[in-house]
Amino acid sequence: MTKTIYITTPIYYVNAEPHLGHAYSTVVADVLTRFYRLLGYETYFVTGTDEHGDKVVQAAKAACETPKEYTDRISSLFQNTWPELDISNDYFIRTTDEKHKNLLQYILQKIYDAGDIYFGEYGGHYCFGCERFYNEKELIDGKCPDHKVAPQFLKEENYFFKMSKYQDWLIEHIQSHPGFIRPERYRNEVLAFLRDPLEDLCISRPKSRLEWGITLPFDNNYVTYVWFDALFNYLTAVGYPDSALYYKFWPSVQHLIAKDILKPHGIYWPTMLKASGIETYQHLNVHGYWNIDESKMSKSLGNIVKPLTLKDKYGVDAFRYFLLREMVFGLDANFSESALINRLNSDLANDLGNLVSRSLTMAIKYFNGVVQKPEEALEIDKKLQEDALKAVQEVTAQMQELAFNKALIAIWGFISSINKYIDETSPWSLSKKEDQRKRLGTVLYNIIEALRIITVLIFPFMPNTAKKIWVALGIKEDLCAQRLKNINEWGSIKEGTMVSKIVPIFPRVKQ
Ligand code: ME8
Prior knowledge:
elongated, 19 helices, Rossmann fold, binds ligand ME8
């Protein structure tokens, strides 16, 4: 049976335009999805926008628009950005979609009927920026740790989800499923949080102070708290409760988020699923934060990095490569344009770009681009084949651990092996000896074979570049149909294949 994987990004708030952080999560999800396709999995990949709540109402007011006009406009900015970054999502979800509203009301009713939602009064410190209540312990010097302002004390009648009931189950589940929340530091963070008694979750907001939300099916005076609404997007997107997509993909769901939203995903979400009688997710993959020139990216600092500006300046693939190569998944990283330029010039223009152009140039110069029949392999040829196999194995292992930077290091290790092979076999010297024609043909065959493997390996990271190289290699089979398990079978390129010239794939950029 074909294996499946369902990958999600957070659904982004529409109170900000797409920035570097959103682009990172979405590119990572795309690279992972493409990689699993290479492994032969059937994949489903979803991203979207989170459109209810007070923040959105405030942002719409500031823009002199109705919430509907405002959310339509910003959501389409997200929808239009992703194709430009070669994001191959299967579905884009909006929490204002009718389908999502219906699902949420169905689920709320289900949890309410099962007795896990109750009505009660609560007094607490409410941060309007976060749209949630804080307890004393969570505040720092009496202020919200995120917004650095003192929250307002609010006493209100509301609906509550019996989250506390599922605390022991959640602790047990995390402990018995080591990769449930990863990397480990975030798993430990959630477990540390669970050492204190879990409070029930306030899941409603009275319409008297917030109208822009999904009405509770059992009380018309209230809308649903934005997190209780947003998390269920992951189910709406696969057509819960009765679609074939849901049955096929839900058991293999993996979420991808940054550390800022660990608590809702690590605690609220699994308990909400448990209460709904739905199997919980396979993995919560948590990455760190991009800082800009060593400081936090924020509107007030005026240092928001726009992904499309970088794409226009450096090309989509250089941008994607940089993001995945520079950040260690799980840790924070620093973004600077000069670091991006350095990577572009050294890894892409120098290492990969030069290898591709020198190899194709030699094949054209010595054999008019026609791939020759290889002779029996010598030791040095066998070593190149072994390096190819090692690279494929290493990339496969690292990708499954989300170690994207290490996977790329392994690919670039193989690029060095090919360059070394070229230097040691010295095709230009062989070309001068008439009796070495066959050997020269074999050496070039091996170089082109190695390039074929490199092209398939970089495909998830840099789909555009891979397609260009694939065309220049003259391979007739579809690049998208390649599978990792057989790409390292040496000898796939057929003799007689015609390679062609390629314009420099990564022109150097001045600092
Ligand atoms: O939290 N570095 O939406 P959001 C890396 N709507 N990633 C970053 C980042 C940075 N500096 N800044 C943002 C929400 N991100 C909710 C989610 S999901 C059911 C609801 C990315 O627009 C990262 O993925 O604030 C982070 O988790 C997400 O954007 C937060 O997006």
